[in-house]
Amino acid sequence: AAYRFLSGLELIKGVSFGPIADLGAADGLIAIAGVHINLLPIIMTAVNLVSCIIFTKGATPKTKIQLYVMAVFFLFFLYTSPAGLVFYWTLNNIFSLIKTIFYKLKHPGRVLKILAAVAGAALLALGLVRYSFSERPVVKAALLLLGAALMLPLIVGLIRTKKPAAGKHAAKPNAKIFFGCAAFLALFIGGYIPASVISSSAQEFVNVQMYYSP
Questions:
Q1: Are 29 and 90 in contact (CB under 8 A)?
Q2: 82, exposed or middle or buried, with CB in 10 Å at 0-12, 13-18, 19+?
Q3: DSSP 131
Q4: N or C: which end of the chain has fewer CB within 10 A?
Q5: Are 24 and 12 in contact (CB under 8 A)?
Q6: What dihedral angle (degrees, nearest 10) is formed by the CA atoms of 109, 113, 115, 120?
Q7: How far is CA 76 from CA 35, 120, 185, in A?
Q8: What sections of the protein cross the membrane (predicted)?
Q9: Bridge partners, 32 (sequence order)
Q10: How far apart are CA 190 and CA 197, in angstroms?
Q11: Distance separating alpha carbons of residues 114 and 20, to the nearest angstrom
Q12: Contact 2, 85 (CB under 8 A)
């Protein structure tokens, strides 16, 4: 269904996306001596081959050969297809590969929390360094809030982790750390961000018709 829909979709013809000049035609991202090579089908095939290696671990040689042949077949079948179709197919394969890797991990939830915390820290750094409340307050506040929200699951998970005690019973969670982090997030989200927004443009929060000095 996706192949038929995206192959003849008029909306993507002539539309550029990043380095791709036209989503409705073959990408031709690599040019060597006047010859254009379509890079997206090669990336898609590489992702398919990695998926085959993971999926066929412990499988019979016949099953491995079938999957490898299918991956190479799709390289030639989709090589001249529109870049929008191949891009969609590649993203779908990458998502399936990541999902499979997560399922094979011993603690997928912990890995997901760590990745979310790293992304949250990057958003916090971007919001603090790149944008200012005087120029783009909404963007800065959104980045800070989203970054704090992404880091929160890992913080809560670390707080809830029970450390083994010297005796038979595990130590109780440290309530001081939990409430301290909660108070910090409350002050940061409810105090620092609104105060920075107001201080960046105080005249927007003043009613000039009913102005009086405190």
A1: no
A2: buried
A3: -
A4: C
A5: yes
A6: 160
A7: 17, 40, 53
A8: 29-55, 67-91, 111-129, 141-159, 175-195
A9: 35
A10: 11
A11: 32
A12: yes
Alpha carbon distance 51, 64 (integer Å) = 11
Structure-block tokens of residue 50: 């990695």
Digit-by-digit pLDDT tens for the chain (214 residues) are 566 666 666 777 777 777 788 777 787 888 787 788 888 888 888 988 888 888 777 778 888 888 888 888 888 888 888 888 888 888 888 888 888 777 777 777 777 788 888 888 888 888 777 766 666 777 777 878 888 888 888 888 778 765 554 444 555 666 777 777 777 777 777 776 777 766 666 666 666 566 555 5
On whether the CB atoms of residues 92 and 31 are closer than 8 A, the answer is no
Alpha carbons 97 and 20: distance in angstroms, whole number: 24
User: From CA 116, how far away is CA 121, in angstroms rounded?
Assistant: 9
What are 111-145's pLDDT values in tens digits?
Answer: 778 888 888 888 888 877 776 666 677 777 787 88
Return the residue matching tokens 């989203």: 146
Distance CA(99)–CA(96), nearest Å, equals 5
CA–CA dist 95, 2 (Å, integer): 16
Geometric angle at alpha carbon 71, from 50 and 43, rounded to 5° = 60
- Say how far apart CA 181 and CA 189 lie, in whole Å: 12
